[in-house]
Design goal:
It contains twelve helices and twelve strands. α2 packs across α3, α10 packs across α11 and α11 packs antiparallel against α12. By secondary structure, the protein is of the alpha+beta class. The strands form five sheets. A three-stranded antiparallel β-sheet has the order 3-9-8, with no helix packed on it. A three-stranded antiparallel β-sheet has the order 4-6-5. 33% of the residues are buried.
């Protein structure tokens, strides 16, 4: 049940329906709790009841033979409706790689939604009011062809002759526009109230814990009565260009929030590489341009930053330290650049087993820059800021005791 005393639904030109604070809200205060209308698979192989990952050793459902989490799934009721359809049609899924998306699980998501319509017509009215952006999505011929295939499969293979292409298109668009993912493409939830909230790269709300059948939001800042409530649809610790690209591809809008409107990203130069003149390149309509001399980006440095992201994800602390030393000898990046931020977070997450004087000093310097960057981009009451501040304090205290 949502905490209606803290917010009210409203309307904004150019955005549509939004949520607005009805009173002053303070940092760390719980603002909104919402329950999922639908809990759906999001492409990867999962148990169709509880949406946990399945493997080749997972037991099949005794009726439809799709893999499940166990012989007694705790949320078996969530699989009841499509189980009858799949059993009657004899539709099975052949999973060759469990870590990759399978189109039949996307079919199941749409099927579950259409069956929900038949069983809960009043609640489904909420789904009908949600934006699908289908007119924009259909311009992608691959997407249009896939959705037509799903509609034909549901009618011909599963026997639901009454389902129209328009219904499938709307459901597909609603799930893409309004679905909140648990991560790794395994689960997608549709929340009636959360679907009204707008995006901002520097939002005033963030999710508490992990999305599930319920979702909760807390305040990151002091929110004034009458202020719009916002949250970040995507990872705001990604580069500015990648954030904007993903928002355009998935949610069909150009972000004009305060961060996206500032090429320097509040002076952090989080996505900027260094120019030969000593200035920094920022994103312009005509490409990445140096603020000092006007030169354009070095594509080799751009590719290097892409490669480094993958290395950071895989490296342990020893390899990360060597990488830092290499970068410091010939750095193409601003001290607050996302590469250094990722490196520092990785070190802080893995350094407890390898503390030494040099590492402590490196972490202290890098950690202070990281905290300033996180505070600027996310706010000092955000979870990432609080997390890495606590880790730095633990490391410092542990080091001081050893002296």
């Amino acid at each position: 049940m949502a905490e209606s005393c803290a917010w009210i639904a409203s309307y904004a030109e150019g955005k549509g329906r939004i949520l607005v604070a009805t009173k002053d809200i303070y940092p760390n205060q719980t603002v909104l709790t919402d329950s999922a209308l639908l809990s759906l698979p999001d492409g990867l192989p999962v148990c169709l009841g509880c949406l946990t990952p399945v493997q080749s050793s997972s037991p099949p459902c005794p009726s439809c033979s799709w893999l499940s989490c166990s012989d007694l799934c705790p949320q078996e009721e969530n699989h009841r409706l499509e189980c009858k359809i799949l059993t009657s049609a004899g539709l099975r899924v052949d999973i060759k790689e469990f870590g990759k998306p399978n189109i039949l699980y996307s079919v199941i998501a749409i099927l579950k939604t259409l069956l929900f319509k038949a069983e809960n017509p009043e609640k489904y009215e909420i789904i009908e009011t949600l934006m699908d952006h289908w007119e924009e999505r259909r311009k992608d011929l691959q997407v249009g062809g896939m959705v037509k295939y799903i509609g034909a499969l549901i009618r011909k293979r599963l026997g639901l002759q009454h389902v129209s292409d328009a219904e499938v298109e709307h459901v597909f668009g609603v799930l893409k526009t309004n679905g909140v993912g648990q991560g790794a493409g395994r689960a997608c939830y549709i929340y009636p109230i959360v679907s009204l909230m707008s995006h901002a790269c520097r939002s005033n709300l963030e999710i508490v814990g992990t999305p599930g059948t319920q979702i909760q939001f807390r305040a990151k800042t002091h929110i004034l009565a009458g202020e719009e409530l916002t949250w970040s649809y995507t990872s705001v610790l990604d580069t500015r260009s990648r954030i904007r690209e993903r928002l355009k591809e998935t949610w069909m809008f150009e972000c004009t929030c305060s961060r996206c409107s500032d090429p320097t990203e509040f002076g952090t130069f989080f996505s900027s590489t260094k120019c030969a003149c000593g200035g920094y390149l920022v994103e312009r309509n005509e490409g990445n341009i140096c603020l000092l001399c006007g030169d354009k980006e070095n594509t080799n440095i751009v590719q290097e930053s892409v490669d480094l992201v993958e290395q950071i994800r895989l490296y342990g602390s020893d390899e990360i330290i060597k990488l830092v030393e290499r970068l410091e000898s010939n750095s193409h990046y601003h001290p607050s650049h996302h590469i250094y931020s990722r490196i520092t977070m990785r070190l802080l997450d893995t350094c407890f087993q390898s503390l030494n004087e040099d590492l402590i000093l490196k972490l202290k310097t890098r950690g202070e820059i990281l905290l300033r960057t996180l505070e600027t981009l996310l706010g000092e009451n955000s979870r990432p800021y609080s997390r890495y501040k606590s880790i730095l304090e633990l490391i410092t205290n542990k080091h001081n005791k050893s002296l």
